[in-house]
Amino acid sequence: MNLARTSSTTIVNARFLSRMTSYDVAGITLPALGHGMASSTTAMLCTYPLNLIRTRLQARLGRIDHARHVIHLMFNPHALT
């Protein structure tokens, strides 16, 4: 195994984390949170109308298929057997 490489990577990560202050973490976290919220809100605003249209079309097709099935059973009573 490559134990020497793993330990050097761990040391580098520990040094980086020890140099970060709470201001650095807050300075990174809040803008990232804001951008994530803006991105998801934009995506929802763009996709909601499309999802609504898709749902209504699926419901309409479901009613049409159900009506066809009922009519088929009414005029073909042996279809159930």
Shape: elongated
Put simply, the count of helices is 2
Q: Mean pLDDT, nearest integer?
A: 76
**Distance from first to last alpha carbon:** 67 Å
Characterize the structure shown:
The protein is mainly alpha-helical and 81 residues long. The protein has helices at residues 3-19, 22-75. The longest helix is centred in the middle third of the chain and has 54 residues, at 22-75. The chain is elongated and about 80 Å long. The N and C termini lie far apart (67 Å). The mean pLDDT is 76.
Summarize the structure.
With about 80 residues, the chain is an all-alpha fold. It has helices at about 5-20, 20-75.
Q: Which descriptors would you attach to this protein?
A:
81 residues, mainly alpha, 2 helices, 0% strand
Note the topology:
Blueprint: H1 3-19, H2 22-75
